[in-house]
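Bit of a strange request maybe. I'm writing a small parser for structure token strings and I need a real example to test against, not something I typed by hand. Could someone generate the tokens for this chain?
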Amino acid sequence: MQVIRDVRKFVSIPQARTLLTMLFLYGIGTGILAPMNAVYLESLGLTKAQIVAVFSVSLSSNMAITITVGWIGDRLKSKKRLPVAAAFLCIIGLTLYMNAEGFRSALIGMTIAVAPSGMIMGQLFGMARNHFSRAAGDIVEMAQLWLRASYSVGFFAGLLLGANIFLIATFRGVLWGNMAGYVCLVVLLLWFKETTGEPKAKQAAKGEPFSLIMLIALLTLSCADAIRGLYLQLVVLKLFGKPEIMSYIWSAQAVFELLFMTLGGYWAARYGSKRIIFLGGCFALATFLTYTSSPALPVFFVVQPLYSLFVSILYGVAMGYVQRMFLSRTSFGASLYVFISQTASLIGYGLPLFIQGITPNIFFIPSSLTALSLLMIGMVLYRERRVRGYD
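Reply from user aminoacidic:
Good idea to test on real output. This should exercise your parser:
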């Protein structure tokens, strides 16, 4: 089977396992804190508007760094120095964040902890694409997907770990776990020998034509996902009263993540990325509508595989799709995708403020955004079909 041959080739590439481990451990560190962030801020006495302000300011700073570094990153001979420096700054910010006592100190700490991370993900995937393009150009896209899946599996393993750390060591233990993720990233980056120079092998991947409509559609889908990412944990807390439940719900996603990202990658190669992204959006819409119609705990777990498929496509297939729009600028393509996700988060955090309180009705907003995105993608697919019909 092709997938078995590709996996064997992938693991035989020098330092591929180091990259996998790096993203897996970094994902664990990030996942430990993710479901507890908003809850931690609420425990400090912050209002919903103040929580949104903390996330918005830190994300705005992160976005500015992400796109700036992405623009200049391709000119740098060595990319790994940037994420190493960023990780050290994030550790300093986390130290301030875990000692926050109110809105101002939480804002300063989270901004310093989050903003420098804009130099991490885009540069890591730009560095990885250069590495695999040089070593095995025919499996570059799948290699990128497996690296992204490794981060996701680590992230969701971190969610489960974070829930148990919270029960044992409260929020301080969760924050220390997040810091450990940055420490592991620094150690493995220093161990990793970066590949520079022109690819030895010809890449099998073809570039994608630039499409502003598709970028907007991806932004809209990411907005819907960002709303779920922040507000689902608050909705679950209001409905069931236990913050660790959200970690268990998200950790269930890890069971499907690697499989779905692999399937999504091969489906995209066979049927086209846009069609698979459209399919993922349909699963997301079904999930959001289920949240609004049946807010029972078992339902949150049952629909998780559907949403897992959507996330696998959004974070895996869509990332590769955006990167292929800029094949000659690997760092910029990866950073642009991260920037789109961050912009979506910034927009998504604020939209539910128009709905009073924290209830499942919040998910009518991501439902509408997903429907709008599906409409845009459908228009692009219809237009392409008509053009092929005229050829």
